[in-house]
């Protein structure tokens, strides 16, 4: 084996003998435990993070982690159990994107075991994994594809070795299938029988394995249903608030009437403490917490609290004042020529605040004792959460155990750990375990948002060429202070005056944005301003806004050249894979078919996460559609048909990939037509799903077709966020073509407030009591 | 404290709790029946949709004191019991749950118990009217799914209806 440090210097895959040969370990245990290094497949990781704030330190740590001399604590392990199942603790968060299923498939493939015999659970915070326990950037499968297969292949090799002894045959004579190993003489033994025999006796040993070739794949690439579907449809799937942790009683927080306002004093603490069910009332940094026998009694107590508040940092601000500040921060665009020979086309767009609130609100269970704490929550950056919670509690990091629970959606929300940090503080203050749940109103109003921003585009056309394309995004700061899931990078993002975060944001922007056309001199810039809001990376981060602005101007360029939008995109396309998905949707979606006035098609493309996508939509903006009356709803234009094509590279689970695209399509439609937050007098107004208008059944397209295009690529790309940008852009383009007017703000209905805002004092609404009159 | 008695998933239960506590919390926090989910508490998101005497309703909007001792509550956990054993599918579940599995509808899964309970009630209602489920019927479903699984929900309801 080459010395790892030499290998690091010459080859980004230090342990790779060739593309399919790797080294893993059998490590000591009661049953077989096979291991691989999670940074085994470093090209993806290093390609993603070349300009981190402290690259030298990260490289040193990486060197240390890839030390091949002996297995270290950073290994990920596949365990074979005596019941014949394989177990794996995934150091990522399952939030609905389907990675427990795709991970089970990878293990099943290399182990020759049925998918339903693989048990994938979520690993608790493992600080030794450093930045390798962050779930984000649609990166899970890209980063774990090789290491997980190596661990499974090592397990298979050890099972075969043990079987050869048991069956009196050579490894070459054995066949492993469905969890059973059969010898040439027909005798057989199961994985379960071998689990103990194949275990590492003392210490660990290195094992070289060869991964299966694509031609041998029988699981990878096969449409597979989710491993947690049965639990979900029977109500057995457990989310944080479903967990029965002893004495962790329901807990909620009464929050200030302005965003991030803070409590000064409670005027009626004793009175609220005496309310039915209430056990504790405690003032904490974010508000006043109440703990009770039921969440209903928490709601009653929150509503009864009389609190003196200190106004938050955006008191008095509104959408209009924030937009003015963003406009003031815009950098001048370079002056482009505008002559009869070289004409400049431009666009200037506003994107309002949006919410990434999932169905499962911010919630966490915390049991903080004087000598240690245990936390349960849906967390995409559990190591930073553990470190920040330890800081907050005044404990050393090793005293805080952080368990990662499957979450009911994320959309970027769970990159942060606002609920877990708050629950820990409350539990410490009350001296009792708590099950904290944010009310929907809290989650929508105080939870993290996609920042408000503007995007300006200008492009210069000469004859049949585009000479230049400039794009400038200016927005309220996107908070990346979760860093790369580990405190070193999180601290770098938290340098004074936003300097550190700006570097991070610029890095993320530069690494994700591109204009996927041959448009001459292309520049894309990002300016961020104003760090007073609770923001974060909402699904697909900058791309949806950047791509909408870009594709609307592309349609303008096409019109300038009197070209069809689809043909224009073909002509200026420089990427074969993009050309294929573009042609695929044009053909399958019947681009150019005759449509009635007030309806139109729109087409757009996107490239990110090592994949490419195209979307063709049809929209209906006729009065009979926009005028539909549904109570407490936004109807408006309806997208009636969507044809979406994606080349994601190697698709591990095409059925899961299709599901992610379907979800992204509904996100794109919401961003274009219906969903935004309204800031008024220092607070967001939305407090309900009938205020924040995410796509509903009356908005969703009745006809959706997702085409997973066969790929020439041999490695997987990212899926979770890949569906949003092209859809958002295609809907915007279709709307412009159907109405004859290019929209300049999103969502298009933002100026019209379509609901009666709920109260800020009390901060949460009372539950209705007429449910029995509304049965259906 | 008042005693509250009603039937849940075929079993009569008695709970000591104030009349005004909404049924959702009695189910989840006191009885440990966690299939119905909290998503808003104001009868908007419909994540807690369950059945009362065979009709869809939202326990977040019903003070437990309003139930009578003979009211039958069915949550997702008890849904298979709403059909005869021979009508249950390969997994021993209600035909709508089986359709949901076959169509792999679920993403995060949080809203899905409510979606399924709403779907069953919709199909029962439409069938009682002697007709098939239409796109217009599907458009009336208010249950929100933030993962955006709507396409597969619509397909699964059509599939489930044909099995019911």
UniProtKB/TrEMBL annotation, chain A:
Report the source organism. Nocardioides baculatus
Domain Aldehyde oxidase/xanthine dehydrogenase a/b hammerhead span(s) in chain numbering: 234-313
Q: What is the lineage of its organism?
A: Bacteria, Bacillati, Actinomycetota, Actinomycetes, Propionibacteriales
Where does the record place the region Disordered?
A: 757-776
| Lineage: superkingdom | Bacteria
One of the Pfam families matching this protein, by short name: MoCoBD_1
> Entry's SMART domains?
Ald_Xan_dh_C
This protein is called Xanthine dehydrogenase family protein molybdopterin-binding subunit
Q: Which residues form a coiled coil?
A: none
Q: Which PROSITE patterns would you find in this protein's record?
A: TAT (PS51318)
In what ranges is there compositional bias, type Polar residues? 767-776
Tell me which InterPro entries the record gives: Ald_Oxase/Xan_DH_a/b (IPR000674), AldOxase/xan_DH_MoCoBD1 (IPR008274), AldOxase/xan_DH_MoCoBD2 (IPR046867), AldOxase/xan_DH_Mopterin-bd_sf (IPR037165), N-heterocyclic_Hydroxylase (IPR052516), OxRdtase_Mopterin-bd_su_IorB (IPR012368), TAT_signal (IPR006311)
Automatic annotation (TrEMBL), chain B:
Q: Which residues form the 2Fe-2S ferredoxin-type domain?
A: 2-79
On the tree of life, the source organism's domain of life is Bacteria
Mind telling me which CDD domains this protein's record contains?
fer2
Question: What InterPro entries does the database record attribute to this sequence?
Answer: 2Fe-2S-bd, 2Fe-2S-bd_dom_sf, 2Fe-2S_ferredoxin-like_sf, 2Fe-2S_ferredoxin-type, Aldehyde_Oxdr_Iron-Sulfur, Beta-grasp_dom_sf
Name of the protein described by the UniProt record: (2Fe-2S)-binding protein
């Amino acid at each position: 084996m080459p010395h790892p440090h030499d290998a690091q210097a010459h080859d980004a895959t230090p342990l790779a003998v060739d593309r399919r040969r790797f080294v893993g370990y059998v490590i000591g245990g009661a049953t077989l435990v096979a291991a691989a290094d999670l940074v085994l497949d470093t090209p993806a990781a290093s390609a993603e993070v070349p300009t981190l704030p402290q690259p030298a330190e990260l490289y040193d740590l990486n060197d240390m982690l890839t030390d091949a001399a002996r297995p270290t604590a950073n290994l990920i392990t596949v365990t074979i159990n005596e019941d014949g199942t394989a177990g794996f603790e995934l150091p990522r968060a399952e939030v609905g994107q389907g990675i427990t299923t795709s991970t089970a498939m990878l293990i099943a493939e290399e182990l020759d075991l049925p998918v339903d015999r693989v048990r994938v659970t979520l690993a608790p915070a493992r600080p030794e994994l450093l930045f390798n326990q962050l779930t984000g950037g649609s990166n899970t499968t890209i980063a774990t594809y090789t290491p997980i297969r190596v661990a499974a292949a090592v397990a298979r090799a050890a099972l075969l070795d043990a079987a050869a002894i048991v069956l009196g045959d050579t490894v070459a004579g054995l066949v492993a299938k469905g969890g059973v190993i059969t010898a040439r003489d027909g005798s057989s033994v199961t994985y379960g029988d071998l689990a103990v025999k194949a275990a590492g006796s003392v210490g660990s040993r290195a094992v070289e394995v060869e991964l299966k070739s694509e031609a041998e794949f029988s699981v990878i690439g096969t449409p597979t249903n989710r491993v947690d579907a049965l639990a979900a449809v029977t109500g057995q799937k457990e989310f944080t608030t479903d967990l029965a942790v002893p004495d962790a009683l329901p807990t909620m927080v009464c929050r200030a009437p302005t965003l991030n306002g803070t409590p000064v004093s409670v005027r009626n603490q004793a009175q609220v403490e005496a309310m039915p069910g209430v056990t504790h009332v405690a003032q904490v940094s974010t508000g006043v917490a109440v703990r009770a026998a039921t969440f209903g009694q928490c709601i009653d107590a929150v509503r009864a609290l009389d609190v003196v508040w200190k106004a938050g940092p955006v008191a008095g601000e509104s959408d209009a004042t924030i937009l003015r500040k963003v406009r003031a921060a815009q950098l001048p665009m370079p002056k482009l020529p505008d002559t009869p020979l070289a004409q400049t086309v431009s666009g200037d767009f506003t994107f309002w605040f949006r919410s990434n609130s999932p169905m499962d609100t911010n919630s966490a269970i915390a049991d903080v004792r004087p000598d240690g704490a245990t936390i349960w929550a849906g967390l995409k950056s559990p190591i930073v959460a553990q470190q920040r919670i330890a800081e907050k509690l005044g404990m050393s990091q090793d005293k805080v155990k952080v368990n990662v629970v499957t979450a009911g959606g994320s959309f970027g929300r769970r990159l942060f750990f606002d609920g877990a940090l708050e629950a820990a503080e409350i539990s410490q203050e009350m001296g009792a375990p708590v099950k904290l749940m944010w009310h929907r109103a809290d989650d929508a109003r105080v939870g993290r948002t996609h920042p408000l921003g503007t995007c300006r585009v200008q492009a210069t056309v000469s004859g049949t060429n585009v000479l230049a394309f400039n794009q400038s995004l200016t927005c309220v700061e996107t908070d990346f202070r979760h860093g790369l899931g580990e405190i070193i990078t999180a601290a770098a993002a938290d340098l004074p005056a936003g300097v550190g975060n700006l570097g991070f944001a610029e890095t993320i922007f530069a690494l994700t944005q591109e204009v996927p056309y041959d448009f001459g001199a292309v520049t894309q810039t990002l300016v961020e301003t104003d760090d007073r809001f609770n923001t974060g990376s909402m699904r697909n981060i900058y791309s949806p806004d950047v791509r909408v602005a870009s594709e609307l101007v592309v349609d303008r360029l096409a019109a300038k050249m009197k070209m069809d939008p689809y043909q224009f995109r073909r002509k200026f396309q420089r990427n074969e894979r993009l050309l294929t998905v573009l042609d695929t949707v044009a053909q399958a979606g019947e681009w150019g078919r005759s449509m009635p006035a007030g309806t139109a098609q729109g087409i757009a493309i996107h490239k990110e996460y090592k994949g490419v996508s195209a979307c063709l939509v049809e929209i209906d903006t006729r009065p009979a559609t926009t005028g539909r009356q549904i109570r407490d709803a936004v109807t408006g234009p309806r997208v009636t048909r969507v044809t979406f094509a994606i080349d994601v590279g190697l698709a591990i689970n095409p059925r899961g990939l299709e599901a992610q695209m379907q979800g992204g399509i509904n996100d794109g439609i919401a961003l274009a037509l219906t969903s935004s937050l309204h800031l008024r007098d220092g607070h967001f107004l939305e407090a309900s799903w009938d205020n924040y208008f995410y796509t509903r059944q009356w908005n969703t397209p009745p006809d959706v077709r997702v085409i997973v295009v066969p790929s020439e690529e041999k490695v997987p790309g990212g899926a979770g966020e890949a569906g949003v940008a092209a859809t958002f852009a295609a809907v915007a383009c279709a709307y412009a073509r159907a109405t004859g007017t290019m929209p300049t703000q999103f969502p298009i209905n933002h100026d019209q407030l379509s609901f009666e805002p709920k109260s800020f004092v009390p901060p949460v609404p009372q539950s209705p009591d007429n449910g029995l009159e509304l049965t259906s | 404290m008042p005693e509250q008695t009603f039937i849940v998933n075929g079993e009569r239960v008695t709970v000591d709790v104030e009349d005004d506590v909404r049924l959702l919390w009695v189910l989840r926090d006191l009885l440990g029946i966690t299939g119905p989910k909290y998503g808003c508490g104001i009868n908007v998101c419909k994540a807690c949709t369950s059945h009362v005497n065979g009709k869809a309703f939202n326990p977040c909007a019903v003070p437990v004191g309003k139930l009578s001792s003979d009211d039958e509550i069915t949550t997702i956990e008890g849904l298979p019991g709403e059909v005869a054993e021979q009508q249950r599918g390969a997994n021993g579940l209600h035909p709508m749950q089986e359709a949901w599995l076959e169509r792999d509808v679920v993403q995060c899964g949080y809203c899905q118990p409510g979606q399924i309970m709403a779907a069953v009630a919709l199909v029962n209602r439409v069938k009682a009217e002697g007709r098939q489920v239409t796109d217009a019927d599907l458009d009336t479903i208010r249950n929100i799914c933030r993962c955006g699984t709507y396409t597969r929900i619509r397909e699964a309801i059509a599939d489930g209806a044909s099995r019911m």
